Amino acid sequence: MKVLWITSVYPSADNPGNGVFHETQVKALTSLGVEVTVINPIPLNASFIRVWKKRYRKKKLPYWEERNGVNVYRPVYRATPGQLRWFQPDKRIAGSILKTLKKENIDVDFIHAHFAMPSGGAARIVAAEYQKPWLLTLHGSDVHIYPSFSQSAERIFQKTVRSADEVIAVGEHLAAAAKLKTGRSCTALPIGIDLTQFKLTPTTTLKAKQKEELALPGNKKILLYIGRLVKEKGIFELAEALPYLPEEYVVVYVGDGPEKEKLQKQKLYNERIFLVGQIPNEKVRDYLLASDIFILPSYSEGLPTVVIEAMALKIPIICTNVGGIPDLFGEYSDLLIQPRSVQHIVTSVKGLAADPAYYKEVTEALYQRVHAHYSAVDNAKKLVEKYREITNKSIHSTHELNHFWGAAK
User: Fold this and answer.
1) What is the C-alpha separation between 387 and 400, in angstroms, rounded?
2) Could you give the CA distance from residue 135 to residue 97 in angstroms, rounded to a whole number?
3) What is the 3 state secondary structure string of 316-380?
4) Which of 93, 144, 105, 114 is nearest to 25 (CA)?
């Protein structure tokens, strides 16, 4: 089966951590014999806008790149600032995809789009043009945030979700939220991780070794954050929590983003706050093994891969009660904290230190949960079955329609 994968984010040589969960699933699909072609359209604003605002400058990404045997195309499309609020770009993105398909002579059996906006809206148009079945995966922000921007955004969201041949969501809570908003039932199917890469158990000796190799403070307890350095991830609440914690705790931020300079101006920077910067995805495991607690105090989330990875390594975790995170924690979701709360971060860190035996039990249970439900390969097998099911249904519907018109003549 030849699958066209449409997404607004996908890893590249220069930014290997951008949308890495997509590549995880693509790798799993290709291991099962599915031929995947990725099209990751890139927005290009007018030249005067790119000069005016740094954030709108063209991303330095190649038009074509081969990653792990998969062709990744990144055609540009004309963008407008604030387009997800007011000027939905689905037609422009669809145009860039259609042009690429024709230019590269790409054969397609099935279309899989990620995020209702903007990729899903574009996939809707491409699927209609090629008369191919298509599946939409919802990830979180496309349900909880984007539709609330404007009436235009809400209209495109509703139209896209309702027109897909089938819709899946990366978690149970997200599937329920999508049904509440649209009335359409969604199947919950997480992406998962490559569990073969997460078999080590973080012993005291291994943790000390990792800290030394990564040049992290060996005599400190590390609170590790991995992700974009943006306000919405709760990075400043984490920094503000440090003065209320014992001196033995430090925060290590892994990642890059627009708030990097502001973090560098924090009072405890280079004393108890350390910024590592962007790292290759294969190094994430090393930092997790070196940490004492992994923390993700986001205001909103889909189903963050890095949390699944931390669970697979039996790392104690502090997360906010948002998005698909309760799905990951299951019966332990009462341990999740509220977003935007410095006090909740402080209380949770101290709680972990006060009852290590209980949290060892929690990490073991979450480890077992990940291995039972979040294998990328196992879930890719379920996805392939979904592709076949939708395709067969589409073929059957086409035969019925042809029979109807034949009888009508």
Assistant:
1) 20
2) 16
3) CEEEECCCCHHHHHHHHHHHCECCCCHHHHHHHHHHHHHCHHHHHHHHHHHHHHHHHHCEHHHHH
4) 114
| Beta-carbon contacts of residue 121 (< 8 Å; ≥ 6 apart) | 88, 89, 90, 93, 94, 156, 159, 160
Tokens 């997800």 belong to residue = 84
* Cβ neighbours, 10 Å, residue 353: 17
Q: Write the CB contacts of 205 (distance below 8 Å, at least 6 apart in sequence).
A: none
Give the Cα-Cα-Cα angle 267, 226, 177 (nearest 5 degrees).
115
Question: What whole-number distance in Å separates Cα of residue 270 and Cα of residue 268?
Answer: 6
First to last CA, the chain: 34
| 327 contact partners, CB below 8 Å, separation of at least 6 | 171, 172, 173, 174, 188, 190, 303
Query: Which DSSP symbol is given to 194?
Result: -
Q: How far apart are CA 40 and CA 73, in angstroms?
A: 6
Band the pLDDT of 359: cuts 50, 70, 90: very high
Closest CA to 302 of 136, 114, 140: 140
* 138: pLDDT strictly greater than 90: yes
73 and 107 Cβ atoms separated by less than 8 Å: no
pLDDT at 47 over 80: no
Give the side-chain half-sphere CA count within 13 A for 211. 21
- Does the predicted TM-score (pTM) go above 0.70? yes
Cβ-Cβ contacts under 8 Å for 295 (sequence gap 6 or more): 223, 224, 225, 238, 317, 318, 319, 345, 349
Give the whole-angstrom CA distance, residue 190 versus residue 373: 8
Q: Would you tell me how many other CB atoms lie within 10 Å of the CB of residue 357?
A: 6
Measured in residues, the chain has a length of 409
